[in-house]
Design a protein that fits this description.
The chain is an alpha/beta fold and 242 residues long. Helices cover 36% and strands 17% of the residues. Helix 1 packs across helix 3, helix 5 packs parallel to helix 7 and helix 6 runs antiparallel to helix 7.
């Protein structure tokens, strides 16, 4: 593990990242590329946990805004994340990785129930652990679930995989001249309402001094570069690390 900066990581992947150019579902080539990047880091000896969203299949918040009961909509969104988790598990295992899916909603025929100590044991045995069904609670996003799981497994860093190179003060597609921000504090993210993760997730990371790195997963090899400590993406951390 020489040259590796982070020994244990929590990777947050949005469901939308799996759609490719489509508007719905899972694109086989995209999930294969995501699995390749994860497996590449796994071979470095890094312990990897993944939290995956379900927005490519169902968005609870969007359904709630259309009149559906929010709790019911969020539970449906959680079930969507299980589909993505099993798809990612399949892609990783076809490459030779050892994996486990743990679900916050019990469904023993599909996944293990989430048990913190068992998850840590899997990581220590070099199995990639994929956390599904968010936190198991409505009204909380998968970003918040990712921050929570990162604390629970005592990860060294929370990696937020996106389709952009980091955090920008404005939408780079609508503002071509805007420059990426390399480093932020938790308070700056909250005060400026930057779209890094939701406020609950950032507050949880701040309270527990968990660094968050936002990077572009669509660029091959970026995840490995982040784990090696290269200046990729945007890092969010406390004042004393500036």
């Amino acid at each position: 593990m020489s040259g590796v900066k982070y020994k244990r990581i929590l990777l947050k992947i949005s469901g939308e990242a799996l759609m490719g150019g489509g508007s719905f579902g899972i694109h086989p080539e995209v999930i294969a590329k995501v699995a390749e990047d994860i497996f590449e880091v796994d071979r470095l000896g890094v312990e990897i946990a993944v939290v995956i969203g379900g927005g490519n299949i169902f968005r609870g918040l969007a359904a709630a805004s259309s009149g559906m009961d929010r709790a019911s909509a969020d539970y449906m969104g959680m079930l969507a994340t299980v589909i993505n988790a099993v798809a990612l598990q399949d892609a990783l295992e076809r490459m030779g990785a050892q994996t486990r899916v743990q679900s916050a909603i019990t469904m023993r025929e599909v996944a293990e129930p989430y048990i913190r100590r068992r998850a840590i044991r899997h990581l220590e045995k070099r199995r990639i652990v994929i956390f599904a069904a968010g936190s198991g609670n409505p009204y909380f996003t998968t970003d918040t679930a990712a921050a929570l799981r990162a604390m629970e497994i005592q990860a060294d860093v929370l990696l937020k995989a996106t389709k952009v190179d980091g955090v920008y003060p404005a939408d780079p597609e609508k503002n071509p001249g805007v420059e990426k921000i390399d480093r932020l504090t938790y308070l700056e993210v909250l005060q400026r309402q930057l779209k890094v993760m939701d406020a609950t997730a950032i507050s949880l990371a701040m309270d527990n001094a968990m660094p968050v790195i936002v990077f572009n997963l669509t660029k091959r090899g970026h995840m490995k570069r982040v784990v090696m400590g290269e200046p990729v993406g945007t890092i969010v951390e406390g004042e004393d690390h500036g």
